């Protein structure tokens, strides 16, 4: 397992990755079965034939519905070992609570940095944060957005916030940043909707343009609100290029329940699995594995989670597996696309597969 | 053990007493050394020693002794 986590993120083809990941995930399944009572009950109830000793293939591993993290405190560590609690931003209902001990927190930051170094280099770049500063003001109680910004800010220096606390543009701060770093690589980071609504749209409205030709924008956070405005990835990139002069734009997909091993979009618009993680697509209803190219529900696998049973999660997002090891960008590993949230009825359907909520 | 200059930097960035800085102190071992304080520590080290730390350094800098080693690497 250590060996897998030490590998570079995009150099390992399926022939080498599959056995390592399978062993790591099998071991994690056993670990959580022994350490987390709720996970044990779930396996016993839903996968009674499952036996981690039989080296199960990745597709046969049990998976936890992401919803369960909202309903239960799932952890494989003692309460006294909890170092950090991550919370999802969930717009409705209870947020997920993810329990990390200090080893898990360290592994998560190390992995995130290793993945981002591939895209940004090792140097910490001047960083323009496309949000407002008070999002990280209360350091003892970050929102999910604050935690994301805090986590990514490790990768930058000379941090500058593009928005004021009232969400209006801080034109003075942006101008100063652009003047100072126009000729150097810079990192821009923000949440997809915030970038669009409060930076791109406001700049366009005020007919302001900036030029950061060596800028790299990293953004994350879901497309739902943008899809409602009929804005797709292409429109988004056009808007960013027009208003900020940034042509290198990478979305990433990742959820708080599987923090660290994120899926970054390459130059060809494909989300790439790093060596430490993988995805499967399942058919809603039967929950059988879907074929390449077929739209279904995303299952996310990660070799990182040891303090909570989040190594195999069924997401509430639809997606499509596009290929393995053969993306035109040259990176190894599986690549895919995310096609938005599951319709409510299908979400209910997925919850029903875990219908023994009563004994959990 | 670390030198006094670095000790003062740690005390300032973490907002703790210099006496509390020992070899046992590690990132996350006290509530004061959280991710926010870590970034302040990095900024303070960079300006006091006039060096530029990369992302590997930030991740590796998990104790005062590690910080001292990392700084030394840039002063050769
Ligand atoms: Zn690619």
Automatic annotation (TrEMBL), chain A:
A Gene Ontology BP annotation from the UniProt entry: bioluminescence
Any matching Pfam family: LuxE
Start and end residues of each Acyl-protein synthetase LuxE domain: 5-355
Organism superkingdom: Bacteria
GO molecular function, one term: long-chain fatty acid--protein ligase activity
UniProt name for this protein: Acyl-protein synthetase
TrEMBL record, chain B:
SUPFAM superfamilies in UniProt: ACP-like
InterPro entries: ACP-like_sf
UniProt-recorded name of the protein: Acyl carrier protein
Superkingdom of this protein's organism: Bacteria
């Amino acid at each position: 397992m250590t060996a897998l986590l030490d590998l570079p993120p995009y150099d390992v083809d399926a022939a080498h990755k599959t056995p390592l990941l399978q062993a790591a995930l099998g071991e994690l399944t056993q670990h959580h079965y022994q350490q987390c009572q709720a996970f044990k009950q779930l396996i016993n109830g839903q996968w009674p034939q499952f036996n981690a000793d039989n080296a199960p293939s990745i597709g046969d591993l049990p998976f936890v519905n992401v919803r369960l993290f909202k309903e239960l405190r799932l952890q494989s560590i003692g309460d006294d070992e909890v170092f950090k609690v991550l919370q999802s931003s969930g717009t409705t209902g209870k947020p997920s609570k993810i329990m990390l001990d200090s080893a898990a927190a360290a592994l998560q930051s190390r992995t995130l940095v290793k993945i981002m170094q591939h895209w940004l280099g090792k140097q910490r770049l001047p960083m323009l944060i496309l949000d407002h500063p008070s999002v990280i003001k209360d350091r003892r109680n970050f929102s999910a957005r604050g935690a994301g910004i805090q986590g990514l800010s490790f990768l930058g220096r000379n941090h500058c916030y593009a928005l004021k606390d009232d969400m209006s543009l801080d034109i003075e701060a942006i101008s100063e940043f652009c003047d100072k770093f126009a000729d150097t690589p810079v990192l821009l980071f923000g949440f997809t909707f915030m970038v669009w609504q409060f930076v791109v749209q406001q700049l366009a409205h005020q007919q302001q343009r900036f030029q950061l030709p060596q800028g790299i924008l990293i953004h994350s956070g879901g497309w739902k609100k943008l899809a409602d405005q009929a804005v797709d990835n292409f429109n988004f990139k056009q808007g960013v290029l027009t208003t900020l002069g940034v042509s290198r734009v990478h979305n990433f997909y990742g959820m708080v329940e599987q923090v660290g091993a994120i899926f970054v979009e390459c130059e060809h618009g494909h989300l790439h699995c790093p060596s430490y993680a993988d995805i499967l697509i399942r058919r809603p209803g039967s929950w059988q594995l879907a074929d390449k190219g077929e739209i279904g529900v995303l299952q996310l696998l990660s070799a990182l989670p040891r303090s909570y049973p989040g190594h195999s999660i069924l997401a509430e997002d639809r997606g499509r597996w596009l290929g393995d090891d053969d993306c035109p960008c040259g990176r190894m590993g599986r690549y895919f696309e995310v096609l938005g949230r599951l319709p409510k009825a299908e979400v209910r359907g997925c919850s029903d597969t875990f219908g023994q909520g009563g004994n959990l | 053990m670390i030198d006094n200059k670095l000790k003062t930097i740690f005390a300032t960035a973490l907002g703790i007493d210099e006496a509390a800085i020992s070899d046992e102190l590690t990132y996350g071992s006290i509530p004061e050394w959280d991710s926010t304080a870590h970034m302040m520590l990095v900024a303070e080290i960079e300006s006091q020693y006039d060096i530029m730390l990369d992302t590997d350094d930030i991740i590796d800098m998990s104790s005062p002794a590690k910080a001292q080693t990392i700084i030394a690497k840039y002063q050769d």
